[in-house]
Design a protein that fits this description.
heterodimer; A: mainly alpha; 13 helices; B: mainly alpha; MetI-like fold; 0% strand; globular; disordered C terminus
């Protein structure tokens, strides 16, 4: 019961956060004069009358309150508006551009968690060994390199030489899983590694630190003393309680992940929401940008609810408070 | 113990040198531990050298006679117009795609990167400490609002917002500094708030309040000094991430605009030439890596040096190793009382604090 109430409360806060983000995005982009948009749309030779007409059709002259009302109203109907330039529905655009972004995010996240937590656990259980020192150096390098530099290096030292020598499995650009899973992985493997590298470094370090301090606790000694196998001690007693702070960190990092996605999509020319929104920002295409910001915020909010639920499952104390 | 033994001890105490035990402050202890950490010292030297090179960039440009924004189409490009490699025609690290001296541009880029990194961290740290102290100390409604705001900033896809802001206001150094600072205070705030929450319940704060100290005096004179250690560590670790953030914004074309050199925009321009000019990508990336790595290592070093647990941990490890060796030597010697259990300290019952 308390779990259900917890869930409802989290969803309500999530809706408030979404509303705040949408309003902020709406206001932010009105900081810019509307004349630029109308002028671009009307063409170079446009007379002031034509420009005024365009401004009127788009409703850019209405008081901000009225425009805001229209915006919220259509948002509640699940309509994100239409592109200023192509009149295309933003919903359709986002649906089209979602597959590459989803591929990058899901694959990258799995790789990041598996590698990060895996190496973290191995380092903590072999503290001060060669493996531990080696992974510490790798972690520091991962932390110190920006995502785009890692991506470019992968292009330079993996993609180019392999393709020059007739090995064409690893590719840039995007190709969906419908073209065959093997092809899809070949296209996505470098973006996944790029996205995962920085984050995996952060999680390796976190996991190692947490697990090392957990393994020093008295109850671990008790578990060993009562004759449990080392594997059971580490996973059932050590890792499980070391995971709680890591899961709460995960909620914070989901937002940052989206920034990485934009960079990865640009480096590998994947298309996708990030690249499209950067282009939209370039052309002042307000509805597309707001659409992206809202979808991004919704993703962050949902991910945070999932993370909180996982947290509550791992740590019973959270449910009570 | 016999009388003579006691007399002997008394004599020994009287004869002991006066300055046998020297009091050291936390900062002195930290500095001593840090000095002994070879990696941290190396990182510090690297940072000083990098800052020196950045400051000396105009002098280096004068030394090699290549100003940063001047292209040399004749000596700086080969027959087909591509960059020339390292140590050709007096270009130590080669040239970029328009025939400018890459080394000089990297050092000029260091000025931007280090400036942005240090200034944004300073702003973010001040703002973060202030907000965290206020939220943690006042509590109640103030805390609820500020804490939710901190969470919102932390959870927001900040590169998206940074891109949007940079576009709306137009890219410039000021906007970059503003954007990066805006996203760096929240993490510090959260830590400071948490520490303040527990520190303000201590007796010495109650004592200060009963002496008539106002909230701001308590926050900044009594609580703040106890928070400096974690804040300093965080700040050292924020500098490299700010450097990386600036490079990313410039790489996406939203940061420092050419012809002004920054590591991000050099790497962005190099993107199209990695097949013909490896040095164009590798050297600026190396400069970035070395700088951020040095700051990260220094931050880790400071954290270890400030944590008294580190020394205990090392001592404990030495202890277990010695004990293991001794145990091996004693094998088969039968039960002995040579290794009694360490004395247990009584734990205060929970719930009395």
């Amino acid at each position: 019961m308390s779990m259900l109430r917890f869930l409802i409360r989290r969803i309500l806060t999530g809706i408030v956060v979404l509303w705040l983000v949408a309003s902020a995005a709406f206001l932010l982009f009105f900081a810019r004069p509307v004349a630029t948009v109308s002028r671009q749309l009307a063409g170079r030779e446009a007379t002031p009358a034509v420009i005024a007409q365009v401004t009127k059709t788009l409703g850019l002259n209405d008081p901000i309150a009225v425009q805001y009302w229209h915006f919220i109203d259509s948002l509640l109907h699940g309509n994100l508006g239409y592109s200023y330039f192509t009149q295309e529905s933003v919903n359709t655009m986002i649906k089209q551009d979602l597959p590459p972004t989803a591929s990058v995010v899901i694959g990258g996240m799995i790789l990041w968690l598996v590698v990060g937590l895996g190496i973290g656990i191995l380092s903590a259980t072999r503290a001060r060994s060669f493996f531990d020192r080696f992974s510490a150096v790798a972690v520091l390098i991962g932390l110190s390199l920006p995502t785009f530099v890692i991506g470019e290096f992968l292009l330079l030292i993996v993609f180019v030489p392999l393709n020059q020598h007739g090995f064409h499995w690893i590719q840039d650009q995007y190709s969906g899983p419908s073209q065959g899973i093997g092809t899809w992985i070949g296209h996505m493997i470098l973006p996944w590694i790029t996205l995962a590298a920085v984050q995996a470094a952060v999680y390796t370090r976190l996991m190692r630190g947490q697990l090392l301090s957990t393994l020093g606790e008295d109850y671990i000694r008790t578990a060993r003393a009562k004759g449990l196998s080392e594997r059971r001690v580490i996973f059932r007693h050590g890792v499980r309680s070391a995971l709680t702070p890591i899961v709460s960190q995960l909620g914070v990092d989901v937002g940052q992940l989206l920034g990485g996605v934009i960079v990865v999509e640009s480096v590998f020319g994947l298309g996708g929401l990030g690249q499209v929104s950067v282009q939209a920002i370039d052309t002042d295409n307000l509805p597309v940008i707001i659409g992206f910001v809202i979808v991004a915020a919704a993703f962050v909010v949902v991910a945070n609810i999932v993370v909180d639920l996982a947290y509550a499952l791992l740590d019973p104390r959270v449910r009570i408070s | 113990m016999s009388i003579s033994g006691l007399e002997f001890q008394a004599a020994a105490v009287e004869g002991a040198p006066e300055q046998a035990v020297e009091g050291r402050s936390q900062w002195q202890l930290t500095w001593r531990r840090l000095r002994g950490d070879k990696v941290a010292v190396t990182a510090m030297i690297v940072i000083v050298v990098m800052v020196g090179l950045a400051i000396a960039a105009p002098a280096i440009a004068a030394l090699v006679h290549h100003p940063p924004n001047i292209a040399y189409p004749n000596t700086g490009e080969n027959a087909v117009g591509n960059p020339v490699g390292p140590f050709t025609n007096g270009f130590w690290l080669g040239t970029d795609d328009t025939g400018r001296d890459l080394m000089v541009r990297i050092f000029y880029g260091a000025r931007i990167s280090l400036f942005v990194g240090i200034v944004t961290t300073a702003i973010g740290t001040f703002a973060g400490v202030a907000v965290g102290l206020i939220a943690g100390y006042f509590g109640g409604v103030v805390d609820t609002i500020l804490a939710r705001f901190i969470d919102a900033v932390l959870a927001f896809p900040y590169v998206v917002l940074a891109l949007a802001l940079a576009i709306v206001i137009g890219p410039s150094l000021t906007v970059i500094i503003g954007v990066i600072s805006f996203f760096s205070w929240a993490g510090i705030s959260r830590i400071v708030r948490g520490q303040t929450l527990s520190l303000k319940e201590k007796e010495y704060i109650e004592a200060a309040r009963s002496l008539g100290a106002g909230p701001f005096r308590i926050m900044f004179i009594d609580i703040l000094p106890n928070l400096l250690a974690p804040v300093l560590v965080l700040a050292t670790l924020y500098i490299p991430s700010a450097v990386v953030f600036e490079a990313t914004l410039s790489y996406l074309g939203l940061g420092i605009q050419p012809p002004t050199a920054s590591w991000g925009n050099i790497l962005a321009a190099a993107q199209n030439f990695y097949q013909v000019a490896w040095w164009y990508t590798v050297f600026p990336a190396l400069a970035l890596l070395i700088t951020t790595l040095a700051f990260n290592l220094l931050g880790d070093g400071i954290r270890d040096a400030m944590d008294p647990g580190t020394e205990r941990l090392l001592a404990a490890r030495r202890g277990t190793k010695r004990r293991r060796l001794e145990r091996r030597a004693m094998k088969g010697a039968g039960p002995s009382d040579a290794f009694p259990d360490p004395p247990r300290q009584a734990q205060p019952p929970a719930g009395l604090g």
